[in-house]
Design a protein that fits this description.
By secondary structure, this protein is α/β, with parallel strands linked by helices. Helices cover 28% and strands 25% of the residues. The protein has 11 helices and 20 strands. It has a 7-stranded mixed β-sheet, with helices on both faces. It has a 6-stranded mixed β-sheet with strand order 9-3-2-13-20-19. Bound molecules: flavin-adenine dinucleotide (FAD).
Length: 376
């Protein structure tokens, strides 16, 4: 049987894959997106996006909100687990809470790409200057957007666990309509963030429409479940969540940008999003870098005009470095949290409105100093 063909094969239909596919398709390329899961599917995530993400995705908020959750966030309560806390409010939405099962599905459908869902990419073989994928599809270019465990990333030679700076996180998302929230004191548009006492991670609690998302992520994988349990117990003891959380915590891992050792491209292949290890070092957020890397990769692909030797794809690495800074593999990175900051000082700073607003929220979480990347 003759093999099926496409101009570009994208592995992974998350935000990175669907954004890249959409851009390429708009320029007239035949794009096929593979995902091992059928959509809608869930993704372990707190699900916060910034207005910059909305802009880069050219999201029509009214259209999106039809039957989906798009929770405006206008304030943050920040502190340390068991310590003091501060609250900061804005006069407009500075972030939005989305549900990944809805968000990713919406973006993938909107991309209008051909889809092969429920089929994992198992084999990628170099043949005649192109690729043969799963023994049935030929393509000159493979874009790896398969997240932390992306098979394209593995093919390029770096195993998922080989990077020093890996975030491990667990979250649970469950239905808890406003009228069932009782005395939990959860404000619909105020996200709560509480740093671990050792400053190696933070827990969160955020309402999204009729749902609540609670989780904790750390740069240190030791005893993550214990940290999650402690955080949950603390929230419960102060009456911040219902006594019995339905649903269990699900875990995932991913790489923070400056320390990522993943090869970003090679002949006929590129990595974007978590597959490339691009999440922001201080907040651990990765949706914006996933989308921005997808936009950059799509531009480079279109400039290459059908021929994809290494040399033509190399500007991609330069674009990433310009946007996110130079990678420093093997060295101590800027780290998710400022380890250099003395703990006691940090704990006190985290209880001040000035520091939590100007530094933690505006810089680390919202990246408000960086303008949105608009599709070309
Ligand atoms: C607990 C937690 C909370 C987080 N909270 C936030 C947050 O609030 N805001 C934020 O910006 N970021 C957050 N992140 C990070 C964010 O989830 C990721 O950075 C983002 O999902 C990366 O998008 P992506 O498209 O690169 O990969 P993904 O979203 O992981 O998508 C990868 C896709 O590839 C598919 N795939 C994998 N292997 C194969 C295969 N072999 N064949 C075919 N398909 C395959 C998967 O099924 C998946 O659909 C969080 C992460 C965690 C773990």
């Amino acid at each position: 049987m003759p093999a099926e063909t496409c101009d570009v094969l994208v592995v992974g239909g998350g935000p990175a894959g669907s954004t890249c596919a959409r851009q390429l398709l708009r320029a007239g390329l035949d794009v096929l997106v593979f995902d091992k899961q059928a959509f809608p599917r869930d993704k372990v995530c707190a699900g916060w996006i910034t207005p910059a993400v909305v802009e880069s995705l050219e999201l029509d908020l009214d259209d999106y909100a039809k039957g989906r959750v798009m929770q405006p966030i206008r304030g943050f309560r920040i502190g340390t687990i068991g310590g003091a806390e501060a609250e900061t409010r804005y006069d407009k939405a500075v972030s939005f809470g989305i549900r990944r099962c809805e968000f990713d599905h919406y973006l993938l459908r909107r991309s209008a790409a051909r889809l092969a869902l429920g089929e994992a990419v198992r084999s990628i073989v170099r043949e005649d200057g192109g690729w043969l994928v799963n023994d049935r599809i030929r393509t000159p270019l493979v874009v790896g957007a398969g997240g932390h465990f992306c098979p394209v990333s593995r093919m390029l030679g770096v195993e998922p666990g080989s990077t020093p700076s890996i975030v491990v996180a667990q979250e649970t998302e469950f239905r808890l309509p406003a009228h069932e929230r009782g005395d939990c004191g959860i404000e619909q548009d105020v996200a709560q963030i509480y740093f671990c006492p050792d400053l190696k991670g933070y827990g969160w609690c955020v309402a999204k429409g009729d749902y609540l998302n609670v989780g904790l992520g750390r740069e240190d994988s030791h005893r993550l479940s214990e940290h999650v349990e402690l955080f949950r117990g603390w929230l419960r003891a102060r009456g911040g969540i219902p006594r019995d959380l339905p649903g269990r915590f699900n875990g995932h891992a991913y790489v923070l940008y400056p320390e990522s050792r993943r090869r970003l491209f090679d002949d006929g292949v590129m990595l974007i999003g978590d597959a490339a290890g691009l999440a922001y070092p201080r907040s651990g957020e990765g949706i914006r870098p996933a989308i921005e890397s997808a936009l950059m990769a799509a531009e480079i692909v279109l400039d290459a005009a059908g021929k994809y030797p290494r040399a033509k794809l190399a500007p991609y690495a330069d674009r990433l470095a310009q946007r996110f800074g130079t990678r420093i593999p093997g060295k101590e990175a800027a780290a998710w949290l400022p380890q250099s900051l003395k703990r006691s000082l940090a704990t006190r700073l985290l209880a001040t409105t000035w520091f939590t607003r100007k530094v933690v929220i505006n810089r680390w979480f919202l990246h408000s100093e960086q303008r949105a990347m608009v599709p070309g």
